[in-house]
Amino acid sequence: MAETQNAATWSASDLLTSVYRACRLPDSGTIDFSPSVVLTIADEAIHNWAGHLIASARDGRAVTQTLVSLANEQDDSSGQVFRLPPMALGNTIESVKWVDDEDENNVCSLQLIPAGMEGIFSRWNERGSPTSYALFNETLKVYPAPEARGSLRITYMRRHGQLVIGTDLTTVSSVQSFTDTQVQFNVTTNPSSFVVNAWVDIYASYYPYPFKMSGRIANGAAGIIYIYGDYTDVAALVDPGDTMVIYGKTPYVSLPLEMKGPLVQQIAQQITAELGDLELSTGYNTLSKEGAARVADMLSPRAKSDKQKLVNPYSLARGGYRRRFWGGRGA
What domain range is 245 assigned to? Predict the structure, then answer.
């Protein structure tokens, strides 16, 4: 379903242009600082600096978060073991839910099994509707083994994708039904790094570039990509013009727009230092720290200010004693 688009933009190309101009370099880059080199520096700044800063300001929450549904992507014939999204680590998973394929309204939250208890659950031979899960390296195992077909809905913390431009992405032209379990995406051209059974993401093409689909296994031919899913659900999510990219990569900067200046300055201070302009580098370093501090203060849910004690005037226990009436006149 089409949504109202935001006029604001912050793509990898926008970031490149801003960095080159801050460093007084040609918009096309130089031999030493080609677009790929600068994007690598940008990735490091986002992961090690901007991402940490924003996560801290937001009380520990990661930069991006998404909901992924893993349907028809089990690693074994029993349907008990699922692959985790490659960019999700075990300790970043917030919740796991089992969704019944016959009734999508039948959703059960699964409980994590402590490592020391897994041996007991592994002897559970009966099948049924999953109630628990355990993590094994890159996989997730549900207990008991499902007696009916279903999907996992995993909410997890996700790192910012690797910034890419050019042939690593494509545009969705249209979506159509292919089989009962697969949807056909007609695209302008397949991403250059696309391979059979690749994982792909689909982003909206407008800021803040929300995920339409994430971490889905895909197959395809030239100009056509097939993704597991129900056509009715997918058609309600994906629009012509959306961007498809290999999982873990992104053509967009998924950070608050207020971080534009500090991020550009943080990248520019490193490049100008390598170019030998230490005075300009020092200036950018100072500006980036000051700007980042302002952004962190703005984003923090616990901004420093005078705290006020909120008192419920209707409380039955105020001032250290219990009030002597309930509803009517006091005794």
Answer: 12-61+160-250
